[in-house]
Write a structure and sequence with these properties.
The chain is of the alpha/beta class. The protein contains 7 helices and 5 strands. The protein folds into 2 domains: 96 residues, NAD(P)-binding Rossmann-like Domain (Rossmann fold, 3-Layer(aba) Sandwich); 29 residues, no CATH class. Strand 3, helix 4 and strand 4 form a beta-alpha-beta unit. The chain is elongated, with a radius of gyration of 20 Å.
């Protein structure tokens, strides 16, 4: 399938401080034509028709009424996190747009960190490290 035939997905950017991670962008490119916010704002008339999805990464881009009104073919907003507290679901659904998220994506890493912190605390690993290797 040619890139032009792929559905457009709006993202803030690739890489940098707030953009989608490079490896995640590579995965998205297999299924979508990536359109950055800069590209969208630079050519709203043409790009707005191509965008069928928005990929929200670390609460960006911000989803507001103005953005939704400018995307007539938008079908879904995919949030790359557990919660959707930062999204106005009532407003978004009034545009006929669905919202998805990844509720279990960080369950295992969160449990791993929790266990590591409990073990480190119980065994006083931080204090032991400081005593053995004073800085």
């Amino acid at each position: 399938m040619a890139e032009e035939e792929l559905p457009g997905v709006l993202i803030l950017d690739v890489g940098g401080t707030h953009g989608v991670l490079e490896n995640l962008a590579a995965l998205l490119k297999k299924h979508f034509h990536l359109i950055t916010m800069k590209e969208f704002l630079g050519n709203k008339e043409e790009m707005s028709k191509k965008i069928q999805s928005i990929f929200v990464f670390e609460c960006r881009p911000t989803i507001d009424r103005e953005l939704l009104e400018s995307l007539p073919n938008l079908k879904v907003i995919g949030n790359s996190g557990v919660g959707v507290d930062h999204l106005d679901l009532k407003m978004i659904s009034s545009f006929g747009v669905k919202v998805t998220n990844t509720p279990h994506a960080v369950a295992d890493p969160t449990a791993d960190i929790g266990m590591a912190l409990m073990l480190a605390s119980a065994r006083r690993l931080v204090e032991g490290n400081v005593l053995n290797f004073p800085g």
